[in-house]
Specification:
heterotrimer, A mainly alpha (about 270), B alpha/beta (about 450), C mainly alpha (about 325), A: about 270 residues, B: about 450 residues, alpha/beta, five-stranded mixed β-sheet
């Protein structure tokens, strides 16, 4: 028992060091966002902002349609996340816990699509969307990822495979159908992974730039990544605004993360696998 | 749990249908009005342009203009993808480095017949600029703006070195001893012990402030200018072959390398090399360099980093054959595949009109494409206490256009890494010149 | 019941077989019904574009004019291009630098944060923060960190009298810097998935093992590692796939330099496709990258299949 505090202190120290490395760039970003425009780039990023100004945030908010950008991103990420969680779970059940002809080949097919870089599929995908007449629509923005992605399916499938079969068999003997088994037996046990999938999907979609850039044109569909990226110049950029905007755009993500995180942690108590 | 799943499915469906309604409504369907897409990449210019376009819309009630702003990199990726889908923006900004491919592949509308029909007076534009956008009698764009390169300086650094802005005028350089240009830069280069470059005891490893900062992914803001001043031509003729391996060009490249590695008066490439190097307004703003060679489009950035008269602009030095600057500009172009050619041409006429360009020039972002409006731009800066007429003098003097060549893309891609290595001392100017000339010429059919 | 008449047996057997077949048909139908939505999206928005890319790799196309068929010319050209081989090696080098470090760090972090501890919640957020970073802000952040004179890293090294290298302009350092930036960015994210995987391990197992007098290390190898395998496998496979497609960091920090030291395949593809207007050639390169990743992923599958103790499939 005497040894424990030392180990514990060492652990905390290591974690603390890691935490500093993780968070330092953010602190610098935040710190700089409170500086006068002339100081943002001319004083060291870790030098405390003095005088402190809220001007950058105010300017970002008033001069650009930040509220609109955030709302559009929220719709985009929200819909994709909802679709992803529902449809990936369904597909993951089929892949992870059912046997049907073509399963393995199909699963490899899904995986294989992750291996082709998006940079080259962009043009064909754009052409497909144009055929559907979905350029510059939310639908065109959302559809490619809303039906579940190989990534999401793979993630949930792996988790489903760790849940013992007898739990399911017991329910089956009681006469439960596939959907009932999925909803009643597996889902309650899968909260951590579904929360994780939701978190990952939301944040990834929120930060996506390339597809929104290509498929949307107008202000009615402009997402926050595009809104902020536009402040970048060819040679110089309005970093006092970019940093303030980036800090603003990070807030919803932290909130979403905390929201879902509760499920991941709380489930420790819930996953009383018999 | 079932309830929750059902609920989220309903929410997803609802959001999807909501999403289906928002955006994407056919512009043509809205009461006969046409919506034109106008694509650009410079955020700084958007507010005055937007304001002026509102006027245009008032004068043309049947036309709506949707401005599509994305940053330089995103702009080109998007434009190319959309061109592949035959759905480019109706009117867009064009740059010389993309122009050759665009003109060859029929992406751009030939404006010549329209100009003739509407009797547009194109003599208001500087012919040096306008000519570059003509191919075989076809006109693929009208000048939007122009830019030259100048020597930005920090007034504070100048004062501390006991120099006046006038001391920066009339400087000369030569390949052998660097001339008065290097001498002046030495005065502006100070190490941590207060010793100046060239002085006994100067420590080039511990420099507090360098005389000069340079940064250019292609050469436009650094060695192309020295090349011009040294009598080097980058090409044998417009649309011709690259001739960078000529001695006069190699000397210019050597001089830029010398400024860093031999004279120690320019900020090392380890700091300034693109893409990760800070932009030069930052470098000067944080006191790491006293002056910087940069384009007139950087005025706003310098004004942010060094506000309240903290900076000024001097002429570039003269080389062995005299003064000179790279002189370039953008055009407004009409997409050949536009569904609304008539309206797009109306918009283009507005964008290249005196009225519109005057409004934009007043905002002080870029020099106007119509030279008679230059004073509007200069006055806007005079009001802020900055004399920018040097850029104008440069434009009126000996200039070199941005090279016109089919191989612009190959040159741009290769030049970044090759010249980055030269400035670091990892590659000799001679080898670099040879390499870039061979590789870029190989791409010319 | 054991001495039932054979005919009854036969009838029952027949019925059972019928029922089994019906069940089987039903299961297959159910499986495809569950798959249907994702399959639709998969075919339309993933498979179709990829077939497009595969087809495009046989053409010469600058995105603007008409594509012209060139057969296998693109592949012949890339096989003979030393820059392509350099890019392949650079990519592999990057993956080797990135994946082990990221995975081990994430696993350690997940183990450390899986326990109830003071500040655990905050730490979890803090470690995941880097992954939430909006890409547009990263460029400026890295110039703050790696600037040879004014950057955080070299200023810190200066405090202990070390002359830090010129990180991004030194051919030897550029790739390790790119790799560590990505480790910074993705370790927290990887930890998140492993953390979720750890949640699936029943506490009772640990309790039973503790009663049996095992040490924590023994418990890690006997319980945690085998049961975490599916998550670990997922993380390794997807991170490796992603790692082979490294692009953003290179684009922002080095553009493939210095001297091509960070010219990785995906960046090369971007350059060819978008900067040099060679869409067909870029597509062929993408097929090469695809083959490379497929090979590595297949190897990972084989390795894990051999070693998986619990296979539930």
């Amino acid at each position: 028992m005497k040894k424990i505090p030392i180990k514990r202190i060492a652990l905390y120290l290591a974690l603390f060091a890691g935490a500093v490395v993780s968070v330092a760039p953010y602190l610098m970003t935040l710190n700089s966002a409170f500086k006068e425009p002339s100081q943002v780039l001319t004083t060291p990023a870790w030098e405390p902002a003095f005088p402190v100004t809220l001007e950058n945030f105010a300017q970002v908010w008033s001069q650009y349609d930040m509220a609109g950008f955030l709302l559009h991103s929220l719709v985009y990420a929200g819909v994709v996340t909802a679709g992803q969680v529902v449809f990936s779970t369904m597909a993951a059940y089929a892949f992870g816990r059912m046997s049907f002809p073509g399963r393995d080949a199909l699963f490899w097919g899904y995986l294989a699509t992750m291996m082709v870089p998006q940079i080259v599929t962009l043009v064909p995908l754009f052409l497909i969307m144009r055929e559907f007449g979905l350029i510059d629509t939310y639908l065109g923005l959302i559809l490619p990822t809303a039906f579940g992605t190989p990534y999401g399916i793979f993630l949930v499938r792996q988790y489903f495979r760790t849940i013992p079969k007898d739990l399911e068999s017991a329910a089956r003997i009681d006469g439960a159908g596939t959907l009932t088994v999925l909803v009643r037996v597996l889902l309650p046990l899968s909260r951590p992974i579904l929360a994780t999938l939701a978190t990952i999907t939301f944040i990834t979609t929120w930060n996506t730039l390339l597809w929104p850039l290509i498929v949307t044109n107008g202000d009615a569909t402009r997402v926050v990544t595009l809104g902020i990226s536009a402040l970048k110049g060819q040679y110089s950029s309005q970093y006092h605004l970019i940093l303030a905007a980036a800090a603003l755009a990070l807030l919803p993500l932290v909130v979403i993360f905390l929201l879902f995180q509760r499920h991941i942690v709380r489930s420790i108590a819930l996953t009383g696998l018999k | 749990m079932t309830g929750k799943i059902a609920l989220s499915a309903v929410v997803a469906a609802a959001l999807l249908s909501l999403a289906a309604c928002g955006g994407g409504d056919d512009p043509d369907a809205t009461g006969g009005a046409v919506t034109l897409r106008y694509a650009m990449w410079d955020e700084v210019q958007k507010p005055p342009i937007e304001q002026s376009i509102r006027e245009f819309e008032k004068a043309h009630p049947n036309i709506k203009v949707q401005i599509e702003l994305n940053n330089w990199n995103d702009y080109w990726s998007k434009l190319q993808t959309q061109l592949a889908g035959r759905s480019g923006p109706d009117v867009f900004w064009d740059h010389v480095s993309y122009f050759p491919k665009f003109s060859k592949e029929g992406v751009l509308t030939d404006l010549a017949p329209l100009i003739a029909r509407d009797k547009v007076d194109t003599s208001v534009y500087d012919s040096k600029l306008a000519e570059g956008w003509k191919v075989d009698g076809k006109v693929y764009g009208l000048p939007k703006d122009w830019d030259t390169i100048g020597l930005f300086y920090s007034t504070k650094a100048l004062k501390e070195a006991g120099l006046t802005p006038a001391d920066l005028d009339g400087l000369t350089w030569n390949p052998s001893d660097g001339g008065t240009f290097v001498k002046t830069l030495q005065k502006l280069t100070v190490d941590e012990n207060g010793k100046h470059a060239g002085e006994a005891g100067f420590d080039p490893k511990k420099v507090k402030q360098y005389g000069l900062a340079m940064q250019a992914p292609t050469g436009q803001q650094d060695w192309w200018n020295f090349a011009l001043q040294n009598g080097c031509a980058l090409q044998d003729k417009p649309w011709g072959r690259w001739t960078i391996d000529q001695p006069a060009c190699v000397q210019a490249i050597q001089f830029v390398q010398d400024l860093r590695l031999k004279y120690h008066v320019a900020v090392p490439a380890t700091v300034t090399n693109p893409p990760n190097g800070p932009s030069l307004d930052q470098v000067v703003g944080r006191g790491e360099a006293a002056t910087a060679m940069d384009g007139s489009w950087m005025l706003r950035a310098f004004d942010t980093a060094l506000p309240g008269g903290g900076f000024g602009v001097a002429d570039l030095p003269a080389g062995p054959v005299g003064k000179g600057s790279v002189y370039n500009g953008l055009t407004e172009a009409v997409y050949a595949g536009t569904k609304h050619p008539k309206e797009a041409w109306e918009l283009l006429k507005w964008l290249t009109s005196e009225r519109h360009q005057k409004a934009v020039a007043q905002a002080g972002a870029v020099w106007p494409g119509i030279p008679s409006l230059n004073d509007v731009f200069a006055d806007a800066w005079k009001a802020k206490g900055v004399d920018v007429t040097g850029f104008k003098k440069a434009a009126e003097g000996t200039t070199m256009g941005y090279p016109l060549t089919e191989a612009a893309d190959v040159y741009n891609v290769k030049a970044l890494d090759i010249f980055n290595q030269v400035w670091l001392g990892q590659l000799s100017p001679q080898d670099a010149a040879q390499k870039i000339t061979t590789e870029a010429n190989a791409a010319i059919k | 019941m054991t001495d039932n008449i054979t005919s009854v047996h036969a009838v029952r057997g027949h019925r059972r077989a019928e029922r089994r077949l019906a069940t089987r048909v039903r299961v297959v139908a159910e499986a495809y019904a569950l798959l249907a939505p994702s399959l639709a999206g998969f075919l339309l928005f993933l498979v179709a574009p990829i077939f497009g890319v595969a087809a495009l790799s046989l053409f010469d196309w600058n995105l603007m004019g008409a594509p012209s068929f060139v057969g296998l010319d693109n592949y012949r050209e890339l096989a003979a291009d030393p820059e392509v081989w350099r890019a392949v090696l650079n990519t592999i080098y990057y993956v080797v630098l990135n994946i082990p470090a990221q995975t081990v760090l994430a696993l350690l972090l997940a183990l450390a944060l899986n326990r109830r501890m003071r500040g655990g919640k905050v730490l979890r957020v803090v470690f995941v923060l880097p992954w939430m970073a909006m890409p547009v802000a990263l460029g400026i952040i890295w110039s703050w960190v790696f600037d040879p004179r004014h950057g955080v890293v070299n200023q810190m090294l200066g405090l202990v009298r070390i002359d830090g290298p010129n990180w991004l302009t030194d051919p030897a350092w550029a790739m390790p810097v790119i790799a560590s930036v990505n480790v910074w960015q993705y370790t927290g994210y990887t930890m998140l998935i492993l953390l979720a995987g750890l949640q699936a391990i029943p506490h009772t197992l640990y309790e039973a093992a503790a009663i049996d007098g095992t040490t924590p290390v023994q418990r890690f190898f006997m319980i945690t590692l085998p049961l975490l395998r599916p998550s670990l496998f997922f993380v390794l496979v997807t991170n490796t796939i992603g790692s082979f497609q490294i692009f953003d960091t290179v684009f922002v920090m080095t553009q493939g330099g210095p001297g091509g030291a960070t010219d990785v395949l995906n960046f090369h593809i971007y350059q060819q496709g978008f900067q040099l207007f060679r869409s067909g050639y870029a597509s062929a390169l993408a097929m090469v990258l695809f083959a490379l990743i497929l090979l590595v992923t297949a190897a990972q599958f084989l390795y894990f299949r051999k070693r998986t103790v619990y296979d539930f499939s």
